[in-house]
Specification:
Length: 502
């Protein structure tokens, strides 16, 4: 091929990659890599296509080839690091960020990426080293100043964190993320100090900034359409629907899979705490918000209306394979627990494909749930865009929990509700009840769940909270913010009653 031909084929491959047509893009990159085997960018993009197509080993091989061809290209190395991070290959991502930083002694971005991932994996000393290097390069860098304050807070140096954050806000940072993130971070500290009005003011400022950066109305419209469709579908099903589905997919036709359980509920209802208590059991492999449902099972399910036993078994196999890819050897011979709050609204799909699924639903006072969600600084999508206002949060809570209230009336499946407040008050009692529901005996080490939590990366926004023993300060927290919640309290009243919160 001529250089012009190669460039044309490369542009075609990139368009397919951008359009998420990964299988077709993969075929293009295979040919391009043979034509131009010394081009690191082609190998890097080849890895991206393989990753999108679910071929993790091929992606790794392609990225390693790119790294060998361009060992001193910090931008390319950093990009591959972020790809590894997206695949939850934490150690390889860290290695890439460290290599990118070494390749350019004056580069801020790879050091910030290294600091962020080290903090998320509780390697605070390494994170501090990376941030200090950034401040040595540029003492006024917005990101470095923000993460320095965040590390102060992680190290429980609240006065130092507050001082840094106030100085940062006063300097009017230009970095878009830092502009709103520093306000969220300071609000958390002020909340700990009982300065509720100042915390709410800062949250309001942060959310105003976020709205200016994102087309929130488009996201809300997309969410509302999907939520209404899910609600209508679920509420239209009879209580005997599982019996009907079982006739189409009887037990004798189901290929064997590992024991499987789903842990859901509304976000900020204590799902992460419960997940970590269960993951401390030697017979459980818990996954923290894995992508297998949203990226594999749900799209594959909707590709066809045909649901023969053979096709359902294929769907089950694809989903289990995706979980085991993430777990590696840690999942062998164990009960698999998928903790995923938001897909609770898709329980009918779960149960259509996995009739034997055991379902755990975490409950918490709805008023505390909504308040806690409001405090969260998480990347916006069509679901958590609702977290920008109490009004939308109350609707989001209703949308999800109405589906659960309907599904729990269905006949013939195993479910258990677990209240956050009960778990905090009596960890072993509730933990034992939940563990036995999954068919396992309680292990004494489960009370020290936080020891294992400190050794791994979690993907929930509350990854920091479960690295220490249970605490009760978040129970009934909403009372301090009652005047701000007042407009939506009537909308939450029926859920408080149904779930036993006076």
């Amino acid at each position: 091929m001529t250089t012009a031909d190669i460039q044309h084929k490369l542009e075609e491959a990139r368009q397919l990659l951008l359009g998420h047509e990964f299988a077709r893009a993969l075929a293009h990159y295979q040919k391009l890599s043979r034509e131009r085997p010394a081009e690191p960018v082609i190998w890097a993009e080849y890895g991206n296509a393989a990753s999108g197509a679910g071929q993790a080993e091929l992606a790794d091989q392609a990225w390693q080839k790119a790294l060998s061809l361009a060992p001193r290209n910090p931008e390319l190395i950093g990009m591959i690091g972020h790809q590894y991070q997206g695949m939850r290959r934490t150690e390889k991502a860290l290695a890439c960020f460290a290599q990118a930083a070494a390749a350019d002694p004056r580069a801020i971005n790879p050091r910030i990426s290294l600091a962020v991932l080290c903090e998320k994996t509780h390697r605070l000393e390494e994170a501090r080293t990376a941030v200090d290097e950034c401040l040595g390069i540029d003492p006024m860098d917005d990101q470095a100043r923000y993460f320095s304050a965040l590390l102060d807070r992680r190290e429980n140096k609240l006065e130092a964190a507050e001082s840094r954050l106030r100085d940062l806000i006063a300097s009017e940072p230009k970095h878009p993320f830092v502009r709103y993130a520093c306000r969220y971070e300071l609000a958390q500290i002020l909340d700990r100090n009982g300065q509720c009005e100042d915390a709410m003011r800062l949250l309001g400022e942060a959310k105003y900034i976020v709205r200016g950066l994102t087309d929130t109305e488009a996201l809300l419209k997309g969410y509302d359409e999907g939520a209404e469709k899910a609600r209508r579908f679920t509420l239209g099903l009879p209580k005997t629907i599982l019996r009907t589905w079982a006739e189409y997919f009887p037990e004798r036709k189901r290929e064997p899979i590992p024991p499987l359980a789903f842990l859901g509920g509304h976000p900020r209802s204590g799902t992460t705490l419960l997940e970590q208590v269960l993951d401390a059991h030697p017979g459980v492999a818990a996954l923290d918000e894995p992508t297998a449902f949203l990226d594999v099972l749900q799209p594959e399910f909707h590709k066809s209306k045909e649901l023969s036993s053979a096709r359902v078994n294929t769907l089950r196999r694809l989903y289990i394979q995706a979980l085991l890819r993430e777990l590696g050897s840690a999942g062998i011979g164990k009960l698999l627990l998928d903790k995923n709050p938001s897909p609770t609204a898709r329980l009918p799909l779960w149960l259509r494909v996995f009739p034997e699924l055991r379902v755990l639903i975490a409950l918490r006072d709805p008023r505390d749930v909504v308040l806690s969600c409001y405090f969260q600084n998480i990347p916006l999508n069509a679901a958590n865009v609702n977290f920008l206002s109490f009004e939308h949060l109350a609707k989001h809570y209703a949308d999800l929990m109405d589906i659960w209230l309907a599904v729990r009336e269905w006949e013939g499946f195993a479910w258990l509700e677990v209240r956050y407040e009960d778990t905090v008050a009596a960890l072993e009692k509730e933990g034992r009840r939940v563990t036995e529901f999954l068919g396992l005996a309680w292990e004494a080490g489960q009370t020290r769940f936080y020891e294992k939590s400190r050794t791994k990366q979690l993907y929930s926004p509350t990854y920091q909270d479960v690295t220490r023993p249970v605490y009760s300060r978040s129970v009934a927290r909403w009372h301090a913010y009652e005047k701000y919640l007042a407009p939506i309290l009537p909308a939450l009243e029926s859920y408080c009653r149904k779930f036993g919160y006076g």
